[in-house]
């Protein structure tokens, strides 16, 4: 199985959380292809994001999370490798050959197109199919539903921008992926959270948000990116319980507010 489902522990609400970059698995058949040193700590992993959000089942929210590393296949990219941004930043591929600092992750040759197609079939499509299934099931119960894509990133990635990232970045693809009522409700919480905040800059939402955020069909999509220092130590190597507790309170308030907003929209 390419993913894991965490079911809600109470009545399900119209929100599905996706965590596509928390996976660390590398299939044994291809593990030897990777640089031996780099594979010991997969740098571009959204470390502990699934743990950070593990309270949502008590709010009635289902979560789907990836098992395999984005170095196997990046679930937040288009299968044709269409760039998400056109501003000159480093954008890794569907099956990356480098990390975000442009360091090669393979020992020798890159995966062939045949191997990429196999990864798409084995890991990519099953994840998208499951998300689509879960959203369809929610739509049988609710008129409006929300797809929420959860991410984290190093506080400083010079290949993307020269300055450190804000703590929290909410993306709605320039207003295209979600109703303004949901974006505004989320923004109000995050702006007043005590963290630095940006909307749609430098991240607007990846391929998952762009695919499933279809407000014209009453399926809304939001992406929340956060700097890893928000919930990890300064070296971004370990989960920091105190820091995590603070942002979990904000996230709890965020989802409670989104649930209320969706309930109003569904009346």
From TrEMBL:
Gene3D superfamilies documented for this protein:
Zn-dependent exopeptidases
**InterPro entries found in the cross-reference section:** N-FG_amidohydro (IPR007709)
UniProt cross-references to Pfam families, sorted A to Z: FGase (PF05013)
Q: What is this protein called?
A: N-formylglutamate amidohydrolase
Q: Which organism is it from?
A: Reichenbachiella carrageenanivorans
